[in-house]
Amino acid sequence: MAHTDHMPHSAGAPSAGDAGRPVATFSHARLAFGSRVLWDDLDLTISPGEFIAVLGPNGSGKTSFLRCLLGQYHLDAGHLDVTHAIGYIPQQHAEDADPMALRGRDLVGFGVDGSRWGIGLRGRSRRKRLVDAALAEVGATAYADAPLGLLSGGEQQRLRVAQALTTDPSLLLCDEPLASLDLTNQRLVVELIDERRRRANTAVVFVTHEINPVLPFVDKVLYLVGGQFRIGTPDEVMTTATLSELYGSEIEVVRVNGRLVVIGCEDAHHCVDETDPLATHPGVEAGHA
Ligand SMILES: Nc1ncnc2c1ncn2[C@@H]1O[C@H](COP(=O)(O)OP(=O)(O)OP(=O)(O)O)[C@@H](O)[C@H]1O
């Protein structure tokens, strides 16, 4: 990795003046760890309000892509110009702190604090205002004072969305936020993210092993495999021809009741196990392993 390419620009939430300005632009971007190239010559513009799904098998570079946008990883070649106004929704996981000692509103407050310490009285009332607004935005006010440990996975993930929204982001990065949620809660969390996108024209980059829960919202797919990638609409990328070429082996993509079923790339979580009757019979929730 090099340390010279990352250029955050100062755009906050979209304003009239920069409404059309991309929130991120990768130009001829390359990222590698030693001899392992994750991508090379990647050009991608992320526009306000755009929903981008990042897909690929384990180890293909999805999280590294988010880390580049967060400024944690630096490109080896090319350029990245990205907004400062970023919100980040992590995977659902236990907090480091005792979940019974931490309330929902504490978790959301971490989003306001960022890395700042020692906020004064004025800071405290601003913090409360921002936390209350974010809690209301995701409909979590009712359980904001309950210990995190007593809340369901869906409620906790709703709070993490609120945490990401406290910065009023123009780019929302989502790192597999649906992992370990049931289908109902997956839908609720995706709808919450999409609602924010439509209301504030916030761009969304959504890393996922499973495209189906986000398929109705996705404008573009970035599909990473073994140092290669494809970018396009779901209809362009999620095809038998494109994925077979990308994986260098025979992949089959079929649509079942509006859902995508990808067969043949066994190391990718979003591919189905052909022996799984749930996945191979139309009329059931198919498309995920
Ligand atoms: N800081 C680092 N130093 C060295 N190698 C790294 C570093 N970060 C990531 N890698 C390697 O880069 C590759 C891509 O990792 P990354 O976590 O981005 O993949 P991923 O697509 O998010 O995987 P998963 O689906 O398993 O979460 C992996 O081989 C990983 O070991």
TrEMBL record:
<dbReference type="InterPro" id="IPR017871">
    <property type="entry name" value="ABC_transporter-like_CS"/>
</dbReference>
<dbReference type="InterPro" id="IPR003439">
    <property type="entry name" value="ABC_transporter-like_ATP-bd"/>
</dbReference>
<keyword id="KW-0547">Nucleotide-binding</keyword>
<keyword id="KW-0067">ATP-binding</keyword>
<dbReference type="InterPro" id="IPR050153">
    <property type="entry name" value="Metal_Ion_Import_ABC"/>
</dbReference>
<protein>
    <submittedName>
        <fullName>Putative ABC transporter ATP-binding protein</fullName>
    </submittedName>
</protein>
<dbReference type="InterPro" id="IPR003593">
    <property type="entry name" value="AAA+_ATPase"/>
</dbReference>
<dbReference type="Pfam" id="PF00005">
    <property type="entry name" value="ABC_tran"/>
</dbReference>
<comment type="similarity">
    <text>Belongs to the ABC transporter superfamily.</text>
</comment>
<dbReference type="InterPro" id="IPR027417">
    <property type="entry name" value="P-loop_NTPase"/>
</dbReference>
<feature type="domain" description="ABC transporter">
    <location>
        <begin position="23"/>
        <end position="251"/>
    </location>
</feature>
<dbReference type="GO" id="GO:0005524">
    <property type="term" value="F:ATP binding"/>
</dbReference>
<dbReference type="GO" id="GO:0016887">
    <property type="term" value="F:ATP hydrolysis activity"/>
</dbReference>
<keyword id="KW-0813">Transport</keyword>
